[in-house]
Design goal:
heterodimer, A: about 600 residues, alpha+beta, Beta-galactosidase, Chain A, domain 5, 2 domains, ten-stranded antiparallel β-sheet, six-stranded antiparallel β-sheet, 14 helices, about 30% helix, B: about 220 residues, Maltose phosphorylase, domain 3, 6 helices, about 25% strand
Chain lengths: ~600, ~220
């Protein structure tokens, strides 16, 4: 069963039933300011870091699912409804959500009134712009109230959901005409505030959640909306929100357009205030001036379209299979760019507070976007390599704001270093930029201790060579690509992490998967050596690769497939001799890609 | 003792990929391992903590499926590579959205495997290495238009019924308009490539100065 359809000419997925089997989301923003938005307008915004600069609040695993977002309410006589169906859930006469590249357009209609909201983050803009079009398709005059709604997060998303004894006291807002400012903690250490504006006269506003909703109400039945009147509440502590109330009169056939902006502003210490307790709004005003009307938003949308057209033009497929075309030309590269931007930080399954950038993840993500954004790939490679240790090992994760390795999680995931060879070799193949190998890159972010990127690759390669086990196969460390195969962990305490708990002494377990990786990416290292004229280096590396192939052939084969590993006691993992998990996919993939034991004739088989 | 090629040419990938097909493939993709763990193994760790069919305990971990697709292109089995591709590519799953549950336009990290309570149900959409690896597998190894150190390599490994396609690829400042023809319905093997009408030897197109747009005709067979 389908809940919509692909509109390939517009590069959109069009959802026609709001009750999708799970919230179906989109991402807005390409740099700095980001939003996640579902097909019913749920989601949130953040600036650069989903944990430390969360702009609007979102409650994960909520009831009902995906409650909270960038909501609009319409009160049309005695009917209250939302264009995105949620949160009010009044049955609509028409509903459509178009998720496009960097924008989402939600249209709802009820009783002869159509509301269309386009949400987007314009290129280079520190804010989300919402263009609202209201149209009276009925035969009679419509007098309605339009309410906007966002709920502020008190910046640190983790603290916001845990530290209530403080947070219920700190919330501060400022209201200036039709602009609502969220300035919690701006009086002290924060150099940033957020605002929510509209380009029209407002009949009223609310900034206190309880006043707007009612203490015992959900998002679906706000008191203010039901009453058709904002309370002009000023938040002091508790939960600050921002809601505008607009009185709108529409003659039959009339259409009105509004622009709302949810923005983020940073000010220097000496420029924070213009008067006691009055914040400096000059940057806000400049941002609002950029989008005075719908036309200016359309222009930004066109620029965004052009931006994506350029990125997607690098590889264009025309085949007879339309599903294949839309995967290759639109949605798969789009997801690759989103993955580059967000790594594993913020989705509807990742809370945005848990994880930094993965060493392994980021190197692999790169092979999906390097052709679209080689400069950003280069920057990413240098960032990643800068967290590498002198011995070639690596932090498993690093923090996007500081770009430094994460000490709490540490290293010793022994596949990590080899992924750097993958990303660098793919970057060179795409660009021909061999000079990247000569860039001086620090170890462990220590500028006093650096070496060329080529040297980093060499350390990656030899990290495996110098960490082999009893079967001459690579030691696995805490885990390899499969974070959940923890062969040296032996954890019996449910309160500890499988990944970060100290390994059993010695860490003797070996990985056939890493052996496959070593052979496959080691050959890229050899090609790179040869191109640099380092024939001796290449020869030595080749010998190591050949020994590894022989080790896999001697100790990594189960008879019908590759073994997965040897455990701490030297027992086989991934063998027909065991009861559970006789065969694992990872070793089959990498040892086969590495052609270990391949009959050369097989390659040419038609 | 055997020496040289005979020592290593054992047909391992060929056998391993058959085992993957027989043991790991199901309607919704390739599961991570088989058979599932049904109890906790302290010596193996978190993998054995998940219920059967989910996540690393025999879920379809979509990140690693393209490794097998690429491996299938190495052994020239284009039908199987593309079959695996279609099993997890979201656009092909649109009709089973009520089962798959996550967006039909992006990959999810995990689809419940054949041993799960609800096989075919996906979780953890959007932020997953699945996106990059599947893109890499389809564009560079199945369609076979692949950047290489010295130029653009053309080495498709297709399902036999794919008789033609075109790719426009911008590579190091040059736009290549590539037409691949497969009249004989082979999986692999480039018979002839012409660049702006001139036949080249091999399947590597090296950069040409002064040209912004280049026409490439590829004949498989």
């Amino acid at each position: 069963m389908k809940y919509g359809y692909f509109d390939d000419s517009k590069r959109e997925y069009v959802i026609t039933d709001p009750k999708t089997p799970y919230p179906w989301i989109n991402y807005l923003g390409n740099h700095d300011f980001y939003s996640l938005i579902s097909n019913t307008a749920g989601g949130y915004s953040f600036f650069k870091d989903a944990k430390l600069r969360r702009i609007t609040r979102y409650r994960y695993n909520n009831i009902p699912v995906d409650d909270g977002g960038k909501y609009f309410y319409i009160k049309d006589e005695n009917t209250v409804w939302s264009p995105g169906w949620k949160p009010v859930r009044t049955p609509l006469d028409k509903y459509e959500c178009r998720h496009g590249l960097g924008y989402t357009k939600i249209t709802g209609a009820k009783d002869g009134l159509e509301a269309q909201i386009t949400y987007t983050v314009p290129l280079g803009f520190w804010g989300e712009v919402q263009k609202v079009i209201l149209k009276n398709t009925s035969e009679k005059l419509k007098k309605i109230q339009l309410f906007s709604f966002v709920e502020w997060c008190l910046w640190n998303a983790q603290d916001d959901q845990t530290n209530f004894q403080r947070n219920f006291n700190t919330g501060e807002v400022e209201i200036d005409g039709n602009v609502i400012f969220h300035k919690t903690e701006y009086r002290e250490r924060r150099n940033h505030y957020a605002f929510y504006s509209v380009n029209a006269e407002i009949a009223g506003f609310d900034t206190d959640k309880e006043s707007f909703l009612g203490l015992y109400n959900g998002f679906d039945t706000p008191d203010a909306v039901l009453a058709g009147k904002a309370t002009n509440s000023e938040a002091h502590g508790w939960s600050p929100i921002a809601s505008h109330c607009l009185e709108v009169t529409l003659k039959p056939g009339d259409e009105k357009e509004y622009v709302f902006i949810l923005g983020y502003v940073e000010n220097k210490e000496e420029e924070k205030f213009v008067a006691p307790k009055v914040i400096n709004k000059s940057r806000t005003n400049a941002m609002i001036r950029k989008f005075p009307d719908g036309k200016s938003v359309d222009l930004a949308l066109a620029e965004l379209q052009d931006y994506w057209s350029k990125l997607l033009s690098v590889y264009r497929l025309h085949s007879d299979d339309e599903k294949l075309n839309r995967m290759v030309n639109i949605w798969n590269p789009y997801q690759c760019m989103i993955t580059y931007n967000f790594s594993r930080s913020a989705s509807f399954f990742e809370s945005g507070i848990g994880r930094g950038m993965g060493f392994r993840d980021s190197n692999q993500d790169l092979i999906g976007f390097v052709h679209m954004a080689p400069d950003r790939a280069k920057e990413r490679i240098i960032d990643i390599a800068s967290t590498q240790f002198e011995d070639g090992g690596a932090y498993h994760q690093y923090q996007p704001l500081t770009k430094r390795g994460n000490h709490e999680i540490g290293g010793n995931f022994n596949d990590d270093p080899l992924w750097l060879i993958l990303s660098v070799s793919e970057y060179i193949k795409e660009t021909g930029d061999w000079a990247i190998l000569d860039v001086e890159v620090p170890f462990d972010n220590n500028e006093q201790n650096s070496a060329s990127l080529f040297e980093h690759l060499k350390r990656s390669f030899y990290h495996v060579v110098s960490n082999k086990g009893a079967h001459h196969l690579p030691l696995i460390g805490r885990a390899d690509w499969n974070d959940c195969l923890n062969l040296n962990c032996f954890s019996t305490n449910p309160d500890e992490s499988f990944q970060t708990t100290e390994n059993k002494e010695g860490g003797k377990a070996e990985s056939v998967f890493i052996a496959g990786m070593f052979v496959l990416y080691g050959r890229e290292f050899v090609k790179i050596c040869r191109h640099k004229g380092l024939q001796e280096e290449a020869g030595l590396a080749l010998q190591e690769i050949e020994s590894m192939e022989l080790a896999v052939i001697a100790h990594g084969w189960d008879g019908e497939w590759y073994l997965r590993a040897y455990d701490h006691f030297g027992r086989k993992v991934g063998t027909h001799e065991n009861k559970g998990a006789q065969i694992f996919i990872e070793a089959q993939g990498f040892c086969s890609m590495a052609e270990i034991g391949l009959k050369k004739a097989t390659r040419k088989k038609h | 003792m055997l020496h040289g090629r005979n020592r290593t040419e054992k047909g391992y990938p060929e056998k391993a990929l058959k085992a993957v097909h027989d043991r790991l493939a199901c309607q919704y993709g390739l599961v991570l391992n088989n058979p599932p763990f049904s109890k906790y193994h302290v010596e193996l760790g978190e993998i054995s903590t998940y219920p059967e069919g989910y996540k690393e305990n025999v879920g379809i971990f979509c990140h690693n499926n393209p490794w097998i697709m690429i491996a299938e292109t190495i052994v020239a089995n284009g039908d199987r590579a593309f079959d695996y591709y279609k099993r997890i590519a979201p656009a092909y799953l649109e009709d089973i959205s009520e089962l798959h549950r996550t967006e039909p336009y992006v990959y999810a990290q995990m689809i419940a495997g054949k041993d799960a309570y609800k096989p075919g149900e996906a979780k953890n959409s959007w932020l997953t290495g699945t996106a990059a690896w599947n893109y890499y597998a389809i564009t560079q190894f199945i369609l076979g238009i692949r950047a290489d150190y010295e130029g653009l390599k053309i080495d498709p490994c297709l399902p036999k019924d794919m008789k033609q396609f075109r790719v426009t690829r911008t590579f190091r400042g040059v736009t290549y308009q590539i037409q691949v023809l497969n009249p004989a319905g082979v999986s692999k093997g480039v018979k002839e490539i012409s660049v702006d009408g001139v036949t080249i030897g091999g399947n590597l197109i090296t950069p040409m100065d002064g040209k912004e747009v280049v026409q490439v005709k590829v004949l498989m067979g």
